[in-house]
Amino acid sequence: MKKRCATYAVSLIKDDMTIGLGGGSTVGLMVDLLAQSPREITIVTPSFDTYRLCQEKGLKHQELSHVSQIDLAFDGCDELDYDLNALKSGGGIHTHEKLVGSMADEYILLVDQSKYFQELPFNLPVTLEVLPVAVSYVKKSVQALGGQVCYRTSSAKAGVTISDDGNYLLEATFTKPNDLAKLANQLDKIKGLIDHSLFYQVATKAIIASSNQVELIERK
Q1: Are 109 and 84 in contact (CB under 8 A)?
Q2: Among 12, 57, 92, 171, which is disulfide-ready with 125 (CB 3.0 to 4.6 Å)?
Q3: Cα dist. 168→75, 127, 145, 163 in Å?
Q4: Active site positions, annotated
Q5: Helix, strand or coil, per DSSP, at residue 160
Q6: Where is coiled-coil annotated (predicted)?
């Protein structure tokens, strides 16, 4: 299903486009396909793994800081609802991914049917990127919204996990909220919380793959 999803996504890419690519295995398959049928495109990515793969495949890429507009951006997610709101949990690069989504004319999420829900189930925590000096305040504020907050840790290093920009990564576990828009807005307003991995009304389209078809969905 991932290969089918990646193939459909690549079919949307035309010469002379600036393309944003996130992280994950489906995006990795897109890079492989682009290398097999080269186009005159420029790729930007917030993902180190995707950046390194583009280098290995000889694809033209540019630093995100040198680009002000993106034609199409593609990314994965962990949960997607029928309104194309998404929850991302794994990568911890959501701040940069949201920037890419805002810069893009179309921000397209790639998922298989198992990750597509009528409403986000919140089976995974919301990742928070937090200024180190604001950790106590942000934890208290998120707990007041009903979130159970903990530091993100990694077996690769001792202590709290640090973002690419040197900030702390925390995880907030919520029961499924009654009002998704309200939760997103409340999180957005917390000072010191740089950004969170709840993507409310960020994606414009989604490519959803099942065992027998691929479907392009537009946000209503």
Answers
A1: yes
A2: 171
A3: 23, 10, 20, 6
A4: 97
A5: strand
A6: none
Q: Which residues contact 177 (CB under 8 A, 6 or more apart)?
A: 122, 146, 183
Q: Determine the residue type at 12.
A: L
pLDDT of the residue at 90: 77
Q: How many CB atoms lie within 10 A of CB 152?
A: 18
What DSSP string runs through 28-61?
A: HHHHHHHHHS--S-EEE-S-HHHHHHHHHHT--B
Place of tokens 């029961």: 175
pTM for this predicted structure: 0.94
Nearest to 95 by CA among 130, 123, 133, 61: 130
| Kind plus residue range of the DSSP H or E element containing 100 | helix 94-103
Low-confidence residues in the chain, pLDDT < 50: none
Query: Which tokens in the block code for residue 220?
Result: 């209503």
- Of the candidate CATH numbers 3.40.630.30, 3.90.79.10, 3.20.20.80, 3.40.50.1360, the domain formed by 1-117+200-218 belongs to 3.40.50.1360
Distance CA 32, CA 188 (A): 36
Q: What is the pLDDT of residues 9-26, one digit of tens each?
A: 999 999 999 999 999 999
